[in-house]
Amino acid sequence: MNFMQFTEEQEMLREIAYDFARNEVRPLIKAYDRRAEFPQELLPKMAALGFLGVCIPMRYGGAGMDYVSLGILCEALEWADSSVRETIAVHVGLNGLPLFQWGNEAQKQKYLVPQSRGDKIACFGLTEPGAGSDVANLSTHARRAGDRYILNGEKMWITLADVADHFLIFAKTDPAARHRGISAFIVERGFSGVTTGTIHGKMGVRASNTGWIALQDAEVPAENRLGREGEGFKIAMSALDNARYTVAAGAVGVIKACLEESVQYANQRETFGQKIGEHQLVQQMIARMAQRRDAGELLVAKAGWLKNRGIRNTRETSMAKWYCTEAALASANDAVQIHGAYGYSDEYNVERYLRNAKSAVIYEGTTQIHELVQGAYALGYRQDKPLRCELPAYDRSYWQEEGEATLE
Amino acid sequence: MNIIVCMKRTPDTATKIAVKDGQIDPACLDTWIINPYDEYAIEEALQLRDRAGEGKITLVSIGPPEAQETIRKGLAMGCDEAVHLVDDAFAGLDPLGAAKVLAAAIQKVGDFDLVYTGWKGVDEDHGQTGIYLAEFLGLPHVSMVVKIDDIGDGEARVEREVEGGHELVRTSLPAVFTAQKGENEPRYPTLRGIMGAKKKPFQTWSAADVGLDPAGLQPVQEILSVTLPPQRQAGRIVEGETVEEKARELARLLREEAKVI
Lengths: 408, 261
Fold this sequence. Notes:
The structure holds 2 protein chains of 2 kinds. Chain A has helices at about 10-35, 40-50, 65-80, 80-100, 105-115, 230-265, 280-310, 315-345, 350-360, 365-380, 395-400, and strands at about 120-125, 140-145, 150-160, 165-170, 180-190, 195-200, 210-220, 225, 270, 275. Chain A is of the alpha+beta class. Chain B folds into 2 domains: about 5-215, HUPs (Rossmann fold), CATH 3.40.50; about 230-260. Chain B has helices at about 35-50, 70-75, 95-110, 130-135, 190-195, 245-255, and strands spanning about 5, 10, 20, 25, 30-35, 55-60, 80-85, 115-120, 140-150, 155-160, 165-170, 175-180, 200-205. The chains are: A alpha+beta, B alpha/beta. The interface between A and B is medium-sized, with 20 and 13 residues.
């Protein structure tokens, strides 16, 4: 697969990230999953290694790697467990990168720098009890009052709700308008009127923190509005272009884990006097996993390549997310089948992969939303218009320059 | 505190070794790592330098051109400079030859307080290079170091592993230490470390660069053949009428057949 030309740094990251997943995440994640508890102990380790600012320029506290590296990190982390990758998807993809893309310098200094260093954790509040796929229907509203906004509403299914220090909250500044009435706000946990809680009883990603954020007359300084009034929908969609990429890359990690563990089991377990891998129907399931892995890798690599070059990739990222998450779900389903009754018990990992994989065909655009998006592109009903602030192309020397931001 | 760490790349310890025509099949070696014992030496060196707050760590490594990536991982972990010894004459060195090359390179690097390396490579398990190296450099050698107790001007106190316990040793510096697994786990390179590794000084030296004549590097020992350990046998159930009888039979088998008691 060397035609993709990964750099030496990307290969080293892959090695480190998989080592981390193997040695730091896998040994403990099953217990956290059983207890449905967030593995807080991993955050300082991930911060120290620079994972929490992987593709953010050094001047903003990041590691200065590129967008392909973001994908590699997510693949490796989700090879161990989806919940750990979700932290990167949300903290970096849905919060750090939008701040980098849309934020002014003061906002980047104040929020992006500590987030990229991992001193602060950040999340994204778009979904509401009554607004998921139908984003324009959200009802949280923000009323301007002098030099601040007063926010009221409730956010639901928010990853890291009970963990994060900073929230990127989307609210209507013009309740009469649909998506053009949405604005984005950087909200701190300590602001008055902000409370959060955890949702219990999830089928999968049980080691991820998922919760709600309630805003009751929450006071947010006007300088904390990200972008212009009414620009929130575009900010949210561009954020999803980043996070969906991390989801797609992570799903490839799930497929790889399913394939590795299925191959190992199929070469061990015997029925009817032979290894089950020698049965053709088992081979078929294994072959399909390998096919999904290869196709998924290519889709993710293409999206990462486009991001590095600063080329709009909404279509390609949606395609990668749609394909890879469905492929991961199918692979995990087959992996359980290959493991038989053992696979159905949590003695093996594959039942966890299956429960986790189901979540990813729902969040960050359900499979059905992506099908509509892809259909609309193919039929010519949908075109991407340039954004006021595009995600900058990766420029190694700019990303690697230590700006004043990190000197202090 | 200037430290020279000799490291080499070895096959990943998870590699499934295959033997072909009495030798290790090179085709099975596809993933390479820093020799784990050298990695302990790197970790100790990093901690020593950081405690001292000054000095530098120079990696010295013999290996084919492709080994560059593995050496750079050592830089990503935090070492300051690297010297990569590449020459056709270095292919197939035995431990004696490797020590000659390393000694010549270390003398060329110069200005060091300590040479640190793993007590053995996990590839061929000789455990000789560090000892020869100390001899060629004319320096004291402390093997199986697990902990640096105290290190100061021209003197160090270190703990080394001996069968069943530890030994506290004082030595003058400079010296050559070989690392055994101690308390400190080697760190992961940080992502910033990975990105910074390519900016660090990296020199490539040939035999001529270190003033060696390839003729003097001919192996004095040769690996005649390699065999894999025998396949594990299936378990055996000890038969007997009574528990005592089974226990007696088990004890007899352990003594006479397995020869473990």
